[in-house]
Amino acid sequence: MERPEPIDETLDPADWEEYRALGHRMVDDMLEYLRTVRERPVWRPVPDDVAASFREPLPTTPSAAPEVYEAFREKVLPYPTGNIHPRFWGWVMGTGTPGAMFAEMLAAGMNLNQGGGAQSGALVERQVIDWCKEMLGFPAAASGLLVSGGSMANLVGMTVARNSRAGYDLRSEGVDPGRRRLVAYASREVHSSVPKAMELLGLGRKALRELPVLADDTIDLAALGSAIAADRAAGHEPFLVVGCAGTVSTGALDPLDGLADLCAAEGLWFHVDGAFGALAALAPELRPRLKGMERADSLAFDLHKWMSLPYEIGCALVKDPDLHRRAFSLTPDYLEHTPRGIGGGELWFSDYGVELSRGFRALKAWMALKEHGAARFGRIVLRNVEQARLLEALVKAEPALELLAPVSLNIVCFRYRGGLADEVALDALNRELLLRLHEGGVAAPSYATVRGRYALRACITNHRTRDEDLVVFCRETVRLGRGLEAEGAGGDPSTP
């Protein structure tokens, strides 16, 4: 039987010049999309017909690249989360920059695997990590790793802590329930990635003591000391304290220097979750508030938050590089590090984390720091903190609004109060108010529960925010709140 003639196929374009023109159009469209972001609503829901279109069957035949791009423009681009908008202050999300967008394109074009090897990408990542150490006051000899975000960075630091303090070869033997139970400590305001890491590390959530906080939402050092003593008396093995450099709900900064002192005295690993707050150190005016962070054994933070880089890029720093490497390194013969050739290179990042296949995250950070300089990022961080103070003042000046937590850094938690006294009714009104702010496209705060009360939560990590945006936010919050209050009393509220 005669075999058919093989067909040479490729995924490269048949006409490079046509493809080049399409690429230029994409760049122009995205730059215009960023330039005009203020003119659009912060958010709008995905229409039902658009959502239904994403349930189409698997494509088995090609479509022309321009048609695919048009589908993106019509069905994807108009309906984002909204975090690039100047009035987006929900959760803790960064905004991105045009230059970093270009860096992502360049990184995708190179398509490096950053697991290791003798390549320029590894040198770029090493330099970015060195710059991160310099920015945050970590010693030059510390090790580091760029990861997907703060959750993975916390897992990296906590893994090194567990393995180094277990007292036996945990990597070979596994978590041994017959030994003394390893116990960790954090405030009850700690990010959910920390208890999740305890689960993933085989220690269990019950081994994390979530301690009470003081009136300013920072960890109670006295309660921490008592908990450590009680666990030792019960035969457990305290090994880790997690300090918060910016809590999720209110942005509170734990007393990091005090935690460092306690950990040194008790022989415990000190890890700092600095997901967004660590980068306050970029502003000289704010850096003293993070005193003690540089004493941590490990530090986790995100560059896609307050440094405005596109998702995803976080960083884990570990003070002892040998302990860091011993927690993760596993080199089979097919990944042998050779003295020369592509398999050479002095640093293999796969030896310092979970991932072997790793994208070129470092390029956008490297290019952004070169383009803007660390000082500019510091000025933007400081401006955001000053804007949080402005929002706090606007809330306090408006009788219909109520501040619910101290403003520690860049997060403002408040609610519409109006003339209501019933707490259940207030919670219900503010829940609906949040949705109307979102659906009206006016502004995008998120929410938090502060001492049992539902709060509108504005976290300002946005380089595009102007002071007038905060004035609009307060004005619309009051307008919508009054409408809802009237609606609850049988009135006809104005539409968002």
H/E series, N to C?
HHHEHHEHHEHEHEHEEEHHHEEHEEH
Note the total helix count.
Answer: 15
How much strand?
5-15%
Rg (CA only) = 25 Å
CATH superfamily of the largest domain: Type I PLP-dependent aspartate aminotransferase-like (Major domain)
Give the spatial strand order of the biggest sheet: 2-8-7-6-5-3-4
Under the CATH scheme, the architecture of the largest domain is: 3-Layer(aba) Sandwich
> What is the level 1 CATH name of the largest domain?
Alpha Beta
Please state the average pLDDT score: 95
CATH topology of the largest domain: Aspartate Aminotransferase, domain 2
Please state the overall shape, judged from the principal axes of the Cα atoms: globular
Extract low-pLDDT stretches.
489-496
State the share of residues found in helices, binned by percent.
Answer: 40-55%
Please outline the major beta sheet.
7 strands, mixed
Distance between the termini: 72 Å
Strands, total number: 12
How many domain modules?
3
**Secondary-structure-derived class:** alpha/beta
Can you offer a commentary on this structure?
With 496 residues, the protein is α/β, with parallel strands linked by helices. The protein has three domains: 16-79; 103-372, 3-Layer(aba) Sandwich (Aspartate Aminotransferase, domain 2), CATH 3.40.640.10; 376-488, Aspartate Aminotransferase, domain 1, CATH 3.90.1150. It contains 15 helices and twelve strands. The protein has helices at residues 16-35, 48-53, 65-75, 98-110, 120-136, 150-165, 170-173, 193-200, 221-233, 256-266, 321-328, 362-372, 374-397, 423-439, 467-488; strands at residues 88-89, 143-147, 182-187, 208-211, 237-244, 269-273, 298-302, 314-318, 401-403, 411-416, 444-450, 453-459. The radius of gyration is 25 Å and the shape is globular.
